[in-house]
Amino acid sequence: MFWPNLREGNFDFIGEEAGRGFNVNVPLDNIGMKDTEYFAIIFNILLPMAYEFCPDLVLISAGYDAAVGCPEGQMLVTPGFYCHVVQLLAGLANGHVVMVLEGGYFIPSLTEGAAMSLKGLLNDPCPLLVETSTVHRSVVEAINNCKGALYNHWNCFSVVQRFEYMHGHKLNHYCEHLVSVKYYGDVDKPPYLTRDYYPIISKLAEEDFTSFIMRFRCNEGNYKSFKGTGYAYEPSTLLHVPDKKSHSYENPGRLTKILELMREANVIESLIEVKVPEDRNDLKYCVKVHDATYVDNLINGCLTPFHDLYINDFTAQAAMTAVNVLLTLVDSVQKEEVTNAVALIRPPGHHASIANGQGFCFLNNVAIAAKYAREKYNVTKILIVDFDVHHGNGTQDIFYNSNEVLYLSIHRYDNGTYYPSKLSAGAEYTGHGPGEGFNVNIPFSNGAMGNTEYMAAFLNIVLPIGYSFRPELVLVSAGFDAGVNDPLGGYHVTPEMFGQFIYLLKPLAMGKLIVTLEGGYNLHTTGYGMLMCIKALLGESVPVPPDVFSKPVNKSAAQTIREVIAIQQQFWPSLNVMKTISDKIVHCRYEKEFREDIYCLDKYEVTDLEG
Prior knowledge:
By secondary structure, the chain is an alpha/beta fold. The chain has helices at about 35-55, 80-90, 105-120, 135-150, 205-220, 255-265, 285, 290-300, 315-335, 365-375, 395-400, 450-470, 495-505, 525-540, 555-570; strands spanning about 60, 95-100, 160-165, 175-185, 230, 270-275, 340-345, 380-385, 405-410, 440-445, 475-480, 515, 580-590, 605-610.
Protein backbone atom coordinates (compact mmCIF):
# COMPACT_ATOMS: atom_id res chain seq x y z
CA MET A 1 0.00 0.00 0.00
CA PHE A 2 2.66 2.51 -1.06
CA TRP A 3 2.43 4.77 -4.09
CA PRO A 4 1.93 3.98 -6.93
CA ASN A 5 0.03 1.09 -5.28
CA LEU A 6 0.51 -1.28 -8.19
CA ARG A 7 0.29 -5.03 -7.96
CA GLU A 8 3.09 -5.12 -10.56
CA GLY A 9 5.53 -3.82 -7.94
CA ASN A 10 5.62 -7.17 -6.13
CA PHE A 11 8.44 -9.69 -6.30
CA ASP A 12 6.62 -12.17 -8.54
CA PHE A 13 6.60 -9.78 -11.51
CA ILE A 14 9.89 -10.94 -12.99
CA GLY A 15 9.32 -10.13 -16.66
CA GLU A 16 7.72 -12.01 -19.51
CA GLU A 17 8.81 -14.06 -22.52
CA ALA A 18 12.48 -13.34 -23.38
CA GLY A 19 12.63 -10.90 -20.49
CA ARG A 20 11.51 -13.39 -17.88
CA GLY A 21 13.88 -13.27 -14.93
CA PHE A 22 15.29 -9.88 -15.97
CA ASN A 23 12.88 -7.74 -13.95
CA VAL A 24 13.55 -7.70 -10.22
CA ASN A 25 11.41 -6.07 -7.55
CA VAL A 26 12.37 -6.12 -3.88
CA PRO A 27 9.25 -4.71 -2.18
CA LEU A 28 9.74 -3.34 1.35
CA ASP A 29 6.68 -3.46 3.59
CA ASN A 30 7.98 -1.44 6.54
CA ILE A 31 9.31 2.06 7.00
CA GLY A 32 12.42 2.89 9.02
CA MET A 33 14.70 0.45 7.19
CA LYS A 34 18.41 1.19 7.64
CA ASP A 35 21.76 0.51 6.01
CA THR A 36 21.62 -3.03 7.40
CA GLU A 37 18.53 -3.94 5.40
CA TYR A 38 19.71 -2.31 2.20
CA PHE A 39 23.10 -4.02 2.39
CA ALA A 40 21.31 -7.34 2.84
CA ILE A 41 19.49 -6.71 -0.44
CA ILE A 42 22.72 -5.75 -2.19
CA PHE A 43 24.66 -8.81 -0.99
CA ASN A 44 21.84 -11.30 -1.52
CA ILE A 45 20.17 -10.02 -4.71
CA LEU A 46 21.88 -7.16 -6.54
CA LEU A 47 25.55 -8.19 -6.56
CA PRO A 48 25.01 -11.92 -7.27
CA MET A 49 22.78 -11.14 -10.24
CA ALA A 50 25.04 -8.32 -11.45
CA TYR A 51 28.11 -10.54 -11.47
CA GLU A 52 26.24 -13.30 -13.26
CA PHE A 53 24.80 -10.87 -15.82
CA CYS A 54 28.27 -9.35 -16.35
CA PRO A 55 27.08 -6.02 -17.78
CA ASP A 56 28.93 -3.78 -20.23
CA LEU A 57 27.45 -0.68 -18.60
CA VAL A 58 25.93 0.03 -15.19
CA LEU A 59 23.23 2.74 -15.00
CA ILE A 60 22.24 3.81 -11.50
CA SER A 61 18.88 5.50 -10.98
CA ALA A 62 20.13 7.56 -8.07
CA GLY A 63 17.11 8.29 -5.96
CA TYR A 64 17.76 9.50 -2.42
CA ASP A 65 14.21 9.25 -1.08
CA ALA A 66 15.25 6.27 1.06
CA ALA A 67 17.72 8.56 2.86
CA VAL A 68 17.37 9.81 6.42
CA GLY A 69 14.70 12.49 6.72
CA CYS A 70 12.98 12.09 3.35
CA PRO A 71 9.21 12.33 4.05
CA GLU A 72 8.29 10.19 1.04
CA GLY A 73 10.40 7.12 1.69
CA GLN A 74 10.44 7.34 5.50
CA MET A 75 13.55 5.17 5.55
CA LEU A 76 16.78 5.74 7.51
CA VAL A 77 19.58 5.12 5.02
CA THR A 78 22.67 7.18 5.90
CA PRO A 79 24.53 9.32 3.31
CA GLY A 80 27.69 7.22 3.53
CA PHE A 81 25.78 4.16 2.37
CA TYR A 82 25.63 5.54 -1.16
CA CYS A 83 29.41 5.77 -1.43
CA HIS A 84 29.65 2.09 -0.51
CA VAL A 85 27.03 1.07 -3.08
CA VAL A 86 28.83 2.85 -5.89
CA GLN A 87 32.19 1.29 -5.00
CA LEU A 88 30.71 -2.19 -4.64
CA LEU A 89 29.47 -1.81 -8.21
CA ALA A 90 32.69 -0.25 -9.49
CA GLY A 91 34.31 -3.60 -10.30
CA LEU A 92 31.60 -4.33 -12.85
CA ALA A 93 31.52 -3.30 -16.53
CA ASN A 94 35.21 -2.29 -16.47
CA GLY A 95 34.19 0.61 -14.27
CA HIS A 96 31.69 2.02 -16.77
CA VAL A 97 29.18 3.37 -14.26
CA VAL A 98 26.75 6.23 -14.92
CA MET A 99 24.56 7.78 -12.23
CA VAL A 100 21.31 9.60 -13.07
CA LEU A 101 19.53 11.69 -10.44
CA GLU A 102 16.03 10.53 -9.55
CA GLY A 103 14.17 11.35 -6.33
CA GLY A 104 15.17 12.69 -2.95
CA TYR A 105 13.12 15.35 -1.18
CA PHE A 106 14.91 16.15 2.05
CA ILE A 107 17.57 18.58 0.88
CA PRO A 108 20.18 17.91 3.61
CA SER A 109 20.29 14.13 3.03
CA LEU A 110 19.87 14.55 -0.73
CA THR A 111 22.96 16.75 -0.98
CA GLU A 112 25.09 14.56 1.29
CA GLY A 113 23.93 11.37 -0.43
CA ALA A 114 24.79 12.81 -3.84
CA ALA A 115 28.18 14.00 -2.57
CA MET A 116 28.95 10.55 -1.17
CA SER A 117 27.94 8.95 -4.48
CA LEU A 118 30.40 11.20 -6.31
CA LYS A 119 33.13 10.23 -3.84
CA GLY A 120 32.44 6.62 -4.72
CA LEU A 121 32.88 7.37 -8.41
CA LEU A 122 36.14 9.19 -7.65
CA ASN A 123 37.59 6.12 -5.85
CA ASP A 124 37.75 8.10 -2.60
CA PRO A 125 37.67 6.13 0.68
CA CYS A 126 34.19 5.26 1.87
CA PRO A 127 33.21 6.50 5.35
CA LEU A 128 32.81 4.11 8.24
CA LEU A 129 29.19 3.15 8.79
CA VAL A 130 27.35 1.98 11.87
CA GLU A 131 27.65 -1.75 12.47
CA THR A 132 25.13 -3.81 10.57
CA SER A 133 22.99 -6.01 12.74
CA THR A 134 19.96 -8.29 12.51
CA VAL A 135 18.06 -7.74 9.28
CA HIS A 136 14.42 -6.77 9.76
CA ARG A 137 12.07 -9.73 9.44
CA SER A 138 10.07 -8.19 6.59
CA VAL A 139 13.23 -7.64 4.53
CA VAL A 140 14.37 -11.23 5.14
CA GLU A 141 10.98 -12.28 3.79
CA ALA A 142 11.30 -10.00 0.75
CA ILE A 143 14.79 -11.26 -0.09
CA ASN A 144 13.80 -14.92 0.12
CA ASN A 145 10.66 -14.29 -1.90
CA CYS A 146 12.84 -12.81 -4.64
CA LYS A 147 15.20 -15.77 -4.53
CA GLY A 148 12.26 -18.13 -4.82
CA ALA A 149 10.79 -16.34 -7.82
CA LEU A 150 14.14 -16.04 -9.59
CA TYR A 151 15.68 -19.36 -8.53
CA ASN A 152 15.28 -21.13 -11.87
CA HIS A 153 16.49 -18.15 -13.88
CA TRP A 154 19.81 -17.37 -12.17
CA ASN A 155 22.59 -19.75 -11.15
CA CYS A 156 23.76 -17.39 -8.41
CA PHE A 157 20.83 -18.51 -6.25
CA SER A 158 21.78 -22.19 -6.49
CA VAL A 159 23.62 -21.81 -3.18
CA VAL A 160 20.15 -21.74 -1.58
CA GLN A 161 18.49 -25.00 -0.58
CA ARG A 162 14.81 -25.69 -1.34
CA PHE A 163 12.20 -27.88 0.27
CA GLU A 164 9.12 -29.52 -1.23
CA TYR A 165 6.05 -27.61 -0.17
CA MET A 166 2.62 -29.17 0.31
CA HIS A 167 -0.42 -27.45 1.78
CA GLY A 168 -0.46 -28.03 5.51
CA HIS A 169 3.33 -28.11 5.80
CA LYS A 170 4.30 -26.98 9.29
CA LEU A 171 6.80 -24.26 8.57
CA ASN A 172 9.95 -23.94 10.70
CA HIS A 173 10.19 -20.14 10.67
CA TYR A 174 13.77 -20.21 11.97
CA CYS A 175 15.25 -21.90 8.91
CA GLU A 176 12.45 -22.31 6.32
CA HIS A 177 10.74 -19.73 4.16
CA LEU A 178 7.48 -20.11 2.27
CA VAL A 179 7.55 -18.06 -0.92
CA SER A 180 4.24 -16.25 -0.73
CA VAL A 181 2.53 -13.35 -2.48
CA LYS A 182 0.40 -11.36 -0.03
CA TYR A 183 -2.04 -8.65 -1.06
CA TYR A 184 -5.28 -7.07 0.03
CA GLY A 185 -8.69 -6.71 -1.55
CA ASP A 186 -9.35 -6.08 -5.23
CA VAL A 187 -6.02 -5.57 -6.94
CA ASP A 188 -7.75 -4.82 -10.23
CA LYS A 189 -8.92 -1.49 -8.81
CA PRO A 190 -6.04 -0.11 -6.73
CA PRO A 191 -6.35 3.36 -5.18
CA TYR A 192 -4.38 5.74 -7.39
CA LEU A 193 -4.01 8.49 -4.79
CA THR A 194 -2.93 11.85 -6.16
CA ARG A 195 -4.33 14.24 -3.54
CA ASP A 196 -4.06 14.69 0.22
CA TYR A 197 -1.72 11.78 0.86
CA TYR A 198 1.74 13.36 0.83
CA PRO A 199 3.46 12.56 4.15
CA ILE A 200 4.65 15.49 6.24
CA ILE A 201 7.27 15.15 8.97
CA SER A 202 6.96 17.12 12.18
CA LYS A 203 9.13 20.13 12.90
CA LEU A 204 10.86 18.22 15.71
CA ALA A 205 11.64 15.25 13.43
CA GLU A 206 12.93 17.60 10.74
CA GLU A 207 15.29 19.21 13.25
CA ASP A 208 16.53 15.81 14.43
CA PHE A 209 17.19 14.64 10.88
CA THR A 210 18.93 17.89 9.98
CA SER A 211 21.09 17.64 13.09
CA PHE A 212 22.09 14.08 12.12
CA ILE A 213 23.13 15.19 8.63
CA MET A 214 25.10 18.14 10.00
CA ARG A 215 27.02 15.84 12.35
CA PHE A 216 27.80 13.60 9.39
CA ARG A 217 28.95 16.60 7.34
CA CYS A 218 31.16 17.92 10.13
CA ASN A 219 32.98 14.59 10.52
CA GLU A 220 36.16 15.17 8.52
CA GLY A 221 36.76 11.43 8.43
CA ASN A 222 33.81 11.04 6.07
CA TYR A 223 35.44 13.22 3.41
CA LYS A 224 38.93 11.82 2.97
CA SER A 225 40.29 11.81 -0.56
CA PHE A 226 42.21 9.06 -2.33
CA LYS A 227 45.91 9.50 -1.55
CA GLY A 228 47.16 6.84 -3.92
CA THR A 229 48.34 3.23 -3.72
CA GLY A 230 51.69 2.49 -2.15
CA TYR A 231 54.00 -0.42 -2.82
CA ALA A 232 57.21 -1.63 -1.25
CA TYR A 233 59.77 -4.18 -2.38
CA GLU A 234 63.28 -5.01 -1.23
CA PRO A 235 65.68 -7.00 -3.51
CA SER A 236 67.23 -8.74 -0.49
CA THR A 237 64.11 -10.93 -0.25
CA LEU A 238 65.26 -12.60 -3.49
CA LEU A 239 68.38 -13.99 -1.79
CA HIS A 240 66.37 -16.69 0.00
CA VAL A 241 66.90 -19.36 -2.70
CA PRO A 242 66.52 -23.16 -2.56
CA ASP A 243 69.70 -25.06 -3.37
CA LYS A 244 69.98 -27.16 -6.50
CA LYS A 245 69.37 -30.40 -4.61
CA SER A 246 65.98 -29.37 -3.22
CA HIS A 247 63.16 -28.33 -5.49
CA SER A 248 60.84 -25.70 -4.07
CA TYR A 249 57.84 -24.04 -5.64
CA GLU A 250 58.51 -21.01 -3.41
CA ASN A 251 61.37 -19.28 -5.22
CA PRO A 252 62.44 -15.74 -6.22
CA GLY A 253 60.79 -16.11 -9.63
CA ARG A 254 57.43 -15.46 -8.00
CA LEU A 255 58.40 -11.89 -7.12
CA THR A 256 60.38 -11.13 -10.26
CA LYS A 257 57.41 -12.19 -12.42
CA ILE A 258 55.09 -9.83 -10.56
CA LEU A 259 57.52 -6.94 -11.00
CA GLU A 260 57.97 -7.79 -14.69
CA LEU A 261 54.22 -7.71 -15.33
CA MET A 262 53.83 -4.49 -13.33
CA ARG A 263 56.36 -2.81 -15.61
CA GLU A 264 54.78 -4.22 -18.78
CA ALA A 265 51.34 -2.93 -17.71
CA ASN A 266 52.80 0.48 -16.76
CA VAL A 267 51.19 0.40 -13.34
CA ILE A 268 54.41 1.21 -11.47
CA GLU A 269 54.14 4.79 -12.72
CA SER A 270 50.73 5.03 -11.02
CA LEU A 271 52.00 3.69 -7.69
CA ILE A 272 53.76 5.47 -4.84
CA GLU A 273 56.97 3.70 -3.87
CA VAL A 274 57.35 3.47 -0.11
CA LYS A 275 60.97 3.18 0.97
CA VAL A 276 61.96 1.04 3.95
CA PRO A 277 64.41 2.88 6.22
CA GLU A 278 67.84 1.23 6.06
CA ASP A 279 68.11 1.01 9.84
CA ARG A 280 64.62 -0.39 10.35
CA ASN A 281 64.48 -3.42 12.66
CA ASP A 282 61.12 -4.75 13.81
CA LEU A 283 62.45 -7.68 15.78
CA LYS A 284 60.65 -6.56 18.93
CA TYR A 285 57.29 -6.92 17.17
CA CYS A 286 58.20 -10.39 15.91
CA VAL A 287 58.62 -11.61 19.49
CA LYS A 288 55.22 -10.15 20.41
CA VAL A 289 53.75 -12.78 18.05
CA HIS A 290 56.33 -15.58 18.02
CA ASP A 291 58.17 -17.41 20.78
CA ALA A 292 61.41 -15.56 21.54
CA THR A 293 63.51 -18.75 21.39
CA TYR A 294 62.10 -19.62 17.97
CA VAL A 295 62.88 -16.14 16.63
CA ASP A 296 66.38 -16.27 18.11
CA ASN A 297 67.03 -19.64 16.44
CA LEU A 298 65.85 -18.22 13.11
CA ILE A 299 68.08 -15.15 13.34
CA ASN A 300 71.12 -17.23 14.36
CA GLY A 301 70.61 -19.89 11.69
CA CYS A 302 69.81 -22.66 14.15
CA LEU A 303 66.56 -23.89 12.59
CA THR A 304 66.53 -27.37 11.09
CA PRO A 305 65.29 -27.45 7.47
CA PHE A 306 62.75 -30.05 6.36
CA HIS A 307 60.75 -30.83 3.23
CA ASP A 308 58.63 -27.66 3.13
CA LEU A 309 61.04 -25.29 4.90
CA TYR A 310 64.32 -24.83 3.02
CA ILE A 311 66.96 -22.56 4.57
CA ASN A 312 70.08 -20.83 3.27
CA ASP A 313 72.45 -18.15 4.57
CA PHE A 314 70.04 -15.36 3.62
CA THR A 315 66.80 -16.85 4.95
CA ALA A 316 66.72 -14.89 8.22
CA GLN A 317 67.52 -11.64 6.41
CA ALA A 318 64.75 -12.21 3.85
CA ALA A 319 62.20 -13.11 6.54
CA MET A 320 63.03 -10.04 8.64
CA THR A 321 63.05 -7.79 5.56
CA ALA A 322 59.58 -9.03 4.63
CA VAL A 323 58.33 -7.97 8.07
CA ASN A 324 60.08 -4.59 7.79
CA VAL A 325 58.48 -3.97 4.39
CA LEU A 326 54.97 -4.76 5.60
CA LEU A 327 55.24 -2.69 8.79
CA THR A 328 56.58 0.24 6.80
CA LEU A 329 53.44 0.06 4.67
CA VAL A 330 51.28 -0.08 7.80
CA ASP A 331 52.98 3.18 8.85
CA SER A 332 52.29 4.76 5.48
CA VAL A 333 48.63 3.74 5.44
CA GLN A 334 47.96 4.73 9.05
CA LYS A 335 49.67 8.10 8.56
CA GLU A 336 47.52 8.53 5.43
CA GLU A 337 50.50 9.04 3.16
CA VAL A 338 48.78 6.48 0.91
CA THR A 339 45.22 5.12 1.06
CA ASN A 340 46.05 1.47 0.39
CA ALA A 341 49.14 -0.56 -0.39
CA VAL A 342 50.65 -3.79 -1.68
CA ALA A 343 53.54 -5.63 0.01
CA LEU A 344 55.70 -7.49 -2.52
CA ILE A 345 57.41 -9.79 -0.09
CA ARG A 346 58.62 -13.33 0.44
CA PRO A 347 58.91 -15.77 2.10
CA PRO A 348 55.18 -16.04 2.84
CA GLY A 349 53.98 -16.16 6.42
CA HIS A 350 50.50 -17.45 7.16
CA HIS A 351 51.58 -21.00 8.12
CA ALA A 352 54.14 -19.73 10.65
CA SER A 353 52.75 -20.39 14.12
CA ILE A 354 53.85 -19.12 17.51
CA ALA A 355 56.83 -21.44 17.93
CA ASN A 356 57.57 -22.96 14.53
CA GLY A 357 57.79 -22.35 10.80
CA GLN A 358 55.98 -24.45 8.21
CA GLY A 359 54.95 -24.48 4.58
CA PHE A 360 57.69 -22.12 3.29
CA CYS A 361 56.80 -19.69 6.13
CA PHE A 362 59.11 -18.46 8.90
CA LEU A 363 57.56 -15.29 10.36
CA ASN A 364 53.83 -14.61 10.19
CA ASN A 365 53.91 -11.29 8.36
CA VAL A 366 50.23 -10.36 8.57
CA ALA A 367 49.93 -11.40 12.22
CA ILE A 368 52.92 -9.25 13.13
CA ALA A 369 51.43 -6.37 11.12
CA ALA A 370 48.11 -6.71 12.96
CA LYS A 371 49.83 -6.68 16.35
CA TYR A 372 51.92 -3.69 15.26
CA ALA A 373 48.91 -1.69 14.05
CA ARG A 374 47.06 -2.37 17.26
CA GLU A 375 49.92 -1.42 19.59
CA LYS A 376 51.42 1.54 17.71
CA TYR A 377 48.26 3.07 16.22
CA ASN A 378 45.58 1.75 18.57
CA VAL A 379 43.69 0.14 15.70
CA THR A 380 41.03 -1.79 17.58
CA LYS A 381 39.33 -3.67 14.73
CA ILE A 382 41.52 -5.49 12.23
CA LEU A 383 40.18 -7.84 9.57
CA ILE A 384 42.46 -10.42 7.96
CA VAL A 385 41.05 -12.00 4.79
CA ASP A 386 43.05 -15.01 3.61
CA PHE A 387 42.20 -16.42 0.17
CA ASP A 388 45.30 -18.59 -0.19
CA VAL A 389 44.18 -22.10 -1.16
CA HIS A 390 45.87 -23.45 1.97
CA HIS A 391 44.42 -22.66 5.39
CA GLY A 392 46.46 -20.09 7.32
CA ASN A 393 46.78 -22.31 10.35
CA GLY A 394 49.50 -20.12 11.84
CA THR A 395 47.40 -16.95 11.69
CA GLN A 396 44.42 -18.79 13.17
CA ASP A 397 46.50 -20.22 16.03
CA ILE A 398 48.00 -16.83 16.90
CA PHE A 399 44.63 -15.07 17.24
CA TYR A 400 42.34 -17.98 18.13
CA ASN A 401 41.84 -16.83 21.72
CA SER A 402 41.75 -13.12 20.95
CA ASN A 403 39.14 -10.61 19.86
CA GLU A 404 41.84 -8.24 18.56
CA VAL A 405 41.57 -9.62 15.03
CA LEU A 406 38.81 -11.15 12.92
CA TYR A 407 40.42 -13.89 10.81
CA LEU A 408 38.50 -15.09 7.77
CA SER A 409 39.87 -17.81 5.49
CA ILE A 410 38.56 -19.38 2.26
CA HIS A 411 40.56 -22.53 1.59
CA ARG A 412 40.67 -26.05 0.23
CA TYR A 413 39.97 -28.51 3.04
CA ASP A 414 39.05 -31.90 1.56
CA ASN A 415 37.61 -33.02 4.89
CA GLY A 416 40.84 -32.32 6.73
CA THR A 417 43.19 -34.12 4.33
CA TYR A 418 44.51 -31.14 2.35
CA TYR A 419 47.64 -29.31 3.51
CA PRO A 420 48.21 -28.33 6.28
CA SER A 421 45.92 -31.30 7.00
CA LYS A 422 44.44 -30.02 10.25
CA LEU A 423 40.85 -30.55 11.35
CA SER A 424 41.03 -27.11 12.97
CA ALA A 425 40.63 -25.67 9.47
CA GLY A 426 36.98 -26.80 9.62
CA ALA A 427 33.93 -24.54 9.77
CA GLU A 428 33.14 -25.41 13.39
CA TYR A 429 36.35 -23.78 14.66
CA THR A 430 35.12 -20.30 15.50
CA GLY A 431 37.60 -19.12 18.14
CA HIS A 432 37.85 -19.68 21.87
CA GLY A 433 37.15 -17.57 24.94
CA PRO A 434 37.29 -13.85 24.05
CA GLY A 435 38.05 -14.91 20.49
CA GLU A 436 34.84 -16.87 19.99
CA GLY A 437 33.17 -15.68 16.82
CA PHE A 438 36.35 -14.01 15.53
CA ASN A 439 37.53 -16.98 13.49
CA VAL A 440 35.69 -17.81 10.25
CA ASN A 441 36.72 -20.77 8.12
CA ILE A 442 35.12 -21.45 4.73
CA PRO A 443 36.54 -24.93 4.02
CA PHE A 444 35.81 -26.34 0.56
CA SER A 445 35.84 -30.09 -0.09
CA ASN A 446 34.88 -32.47 -2.89
CA GLY A 447 35.56 -30.66 -6.11
CA ALA A 448 37.83 -28.25 -7.97
CA MET A 449 36.39 -24.86 -7.03
CA GLY A 450 36.57 -21.79 -9.22
CA ASN A 451 35.24 -18.28 -9.72
CA THR A 452 31.62 -19.17 -9.02
CA GLU A 453 32.25 -20.83 -5.68
CA TYR A 454 34.60 -18.10 -4.44
CA MET A 455 32.22 -15.31 -5.46
CA ALA A 456 29.35 -17.12 -3.71
CA ALA A 457 31.47 -17.29 -0.54
CA PHE A 458 32.36 -13.59 -0.75
CA LEU A 459 28.79 -12.42 -1.28
CA ASN A 460 27.12 -14.72 1.22
CA ILE A 461 29.72 -14.71 4.01
CA VAL A 462 32.74 -12.43 3.62
CA LEU A 463 30.93 -9.18 2.87
CA PRO A 464 28.06 -9.57 5.39
CA ILE A 465 30.53 -10.40 8.17
CA GLY A 466 33.00 -7.75 7.04
CA TYR A 467 30.34 -5.03 7.15
CA SER A 468 29.06 -6.29 10.49
CA PHE A 469 32.58 -6.17 11.96
CA ARG A 470 33.25 -2.62 10.71
CA PRO A 471 37.07 -2.93 10.55
CA GLU A 472 39.50 -0.02 10.79
CA LEU A 473 42.19 -1.87 8.81
CA VAL A 474 42.01 -4.76 6.34
CA LEU A 475 45.01 -7.03 5.77
CA VAL A 476 44.74 -9.45 2.85
CA SER A 477 46.77 -12.66 2.84
CA ALA A 478 46.86 -12.83 -0.93
CA GLY A 479 47.79 -16.33 -1.98
CA PHE A 480 47.22 -17.12 -5.63
CA ASP A 481 47.53 -20.90 -5.42
CA ALA A 482 43.76 -21.27 -5.82
CA GLY A 483 44.40 -19.89 -9.29
CA VAL A 484 44.24 -21.70 -12.61
CA ASN A 485 47.10 -24.07 -13.39
CA ASP A 486 48.71 -23.78 -9.98
CA PRO A 487 50.75 -26.96 -9.37
CA LEU A 488 49.66 -27.23 -5.73
CA GLY A 489 46.14 -25.78 -5.53
CA GLY A 490 44.16 -27.70 -8.15
CA TYR A 491 41.49 -24.97 -8.26
CA HIS A 492 40.39 -22.73 -11.15
CA VAL A 493 40.15 -19.14 -9.89
CA THR A 494 41.24 -16.72 -12.63
CA PRO A 495 43.54 -13.71 -12.08
CA GLU A 496 40.70 -11.29 -12.80
CA MET A 497 38.66 -12.78 -9.97
CA PHE A 498 41.39 -11.99 -7.45
CA GLY A 499 41.07 -8.38 -8.55
CA GLN A 500 37.32 -8.51 -7.97
CA PHE A 501 37.95 -9.70 -4.40
CA ILE A 502 39.88 -6.50 -3.76
CA TYR A 503 37.19 -4.36 -5.36
CA LEU A 504 34.64 -5.87 -2.97
CA LEU A 505 36.86 -5.32 0.08
CA LYS A 506 37.95 -1.75 -0.77
CA PRO A 507 34.92 0.05 0.69
CA LEU A 508 35.73 -1.31 4.17
CA ALA A 509 37.96 0.39 6.75
CA MET A 510 37.84 3.79 5.01
CA GLY A 511 39.93 2.24 2.25
CA LYS A 512 42.80 1.24 4.55
CA LEU A 513 43.66 -2.07 2.90
CA ILE A 514 47.05 -3.76 2.48
CA VAL A 515 47.50 -6.70 0.11
CA THR A 516 50.35 -9.01 1.16
CA LEU A 517 51.77 -11.77 -1.02
CA GLU A 518 51.43 -15.29 0.39
CA GLY A 519 51.45 -18.39 -1.85
CA GLY A 520 50.94 -18.93 -5.56
CA TYR A 521 53.26 -21.16 -7.57
CA ASN A 522 52.28 -20.79 -11.21
CA LEU A 523 54.30 -17.74 -12.17
CA HIS A 524 51.82 -16.42 -14.75
CA THR A 525 48.75 -16.89 -12.54
CA THR A 526 50.47 -15.37 -9.52
CA GLY A 527 51.88 -12.48 -11.53
CA TYR A 528 48.64 -11.60 -13.26
CA GLY A 529 46.62 -12.22 -10.09
CA MET A 530 48.69 -9.68 -8.14
CA LEU A 531 48.56 -7.28 -11.10
CA MET A 532 44.75 -7.42 -11.04
CA CYS A 533 44.76 -6.75 -7.29
CA ILE A 534 46.99 -3.71 -7.80
CA LYS A 535 44.75 -2.38 -10.57
CA ALA A 536 41.76 -2.76 -8.27
CA LEU A 537 43.56 -0.86 -5.50
CA LEU A 538 44.21 1.94 -7.99
CA GLY A 539 40.57 1.96 -9.09
CA GLU A 540 41.47 0.86 -12.62
CA SER A 541 39.32 -1.49 -14.66
CA VAL A 542 39.49 -5.21 -13.92
CA PRO A 543 37.45 -7.46 -16.23
CA VAL A 544 34.76 -9.62 -14.64
CA PRO A 545 35.44 -13.26 -15.58
CA PRO A 546 32.60 -14.34 -17.88
CA ASP A 547 32.23 -17.70 -16.14
CA VAL A 548 31.07 -16.29 -12.77
CA PHE A 549 27.85 -18.19 -12.06
CA SER A 550 27.86 -19.53 -15.63
CA LYS A 551 26.99 -22.82 -13.93
CA PRO A 552 25.28 -23.55 -10.61
CA VAL A 553 27.46 -23.41 -7.51
CA ASN A 554 29.21 -26.72 -6.84
CA LYS A 555 26.86 -28.66 -4.55
CA SER A 556 29.53 -29.38 -1.98
CA ALA A 557 30.59 -25.72 -1.94
CA ALA A 558 26.97 -24.64 -1.55
CA GLN A 559 26.60 -27.00 1.39
CA THR A 560 29.79 -25.59 2.94
CA ILE A 561 28.52 -22.02 2.58
CA ARG A 562 25.21 -22.93 4.22
CA GLU A 563 27.03 -24.77 7.01
CA VAL A 564 29.31 -21.80 7.71
CA ILE A 565 26.31 -19.45 7.81
CA ALA A 566 24.45 -21.76 10.21
CA ILE A 567 27.47 -21.81 12.53
CA GLN A 568 28.44 -18.15 12.32
CA GLN A 569 25.00 -16.49 12.45
CA GLN A 570 25.00 -16.68 16.25
CA PHE A 571 27.94 -14.25 16.16
CA TRP A 572 26.96 -12.26 13.06
CA PRO A 573 23.18 -11.68 12.97
CA SER A 574 23.30 -10.21 9.45
CA LEU A 575 23.77 -13.80 8.21
CA ASN A 576 20.26 -14.69 9.33
CA VAL A 577 18.92 -13.86 5.88
CA MET A 578 19.56 -17.25 4.26
CA LYS A 579 16.66 -19.71 4.59
CA THR A 580 15.63 -22.92 2.94
CA ILE A 581 12.95 -21.79 0.49
CA SER A 582 9.85 -23.54 -0.82
CA ASP A 583 9.71 -24.92 -4.35
CA LYS A 584 6.29 -23.32 -4.89
CA ILE A 585 4.73 -19.87 -4.59
CA VAL A 586 1.62 -19.45 -2.47
CA HIS A 587 -0.67 -16.56 -3.46
CA CYS A 588 -2.48 -15.13 -0.45
CA ARG A 589 -5.36 -12.67 -0.95
CA TYR A 590 -6.66 -11.10 2.26
CA GLU A 591 -10.24 -9.86 1.95
CA LYS A 592 -10.40 -7.80 5.15
CA GLU A 593 -7.34 -7.85 7.36
CA PHE A 594 -3.86 -9.26 7.32
CA ARG A 595 -3.42 -12.63 9.03
CA GLU A 596 -0.12 -14.47 9.39
CA ASP A 597 -1.67 -17.96 9.47
CA ILE A 598 -1.79 -18.95 5.81
CA TYR A 599 -3.79 -22.06 6.67
CA CYS A 600 -6.85 -19.92 7.49
CA LEU A 601 -6.88 -17.79 4.37
CA ASP A 602 -10.09 -16.66 2.76
CA LYS A 603 -8.56 -17.58 -0.58
CA TYR A 604 -5.33 -19.21 -1.58
CA GLU A 605 -3.69 -20.49 -4.71
CA VAL A 606 -0.50 -22.52 -5.16
CA THR A 607 1.69 -22.00 -8.22
CA ASP A 608 4.60 -24.25 -9.17
CA LEU A 609 7.90 -22.48 -9.71
CA GLU A 610 9.17 -22.89 -13.23
CA GLY A 611 11.50 -25.79 -13.93
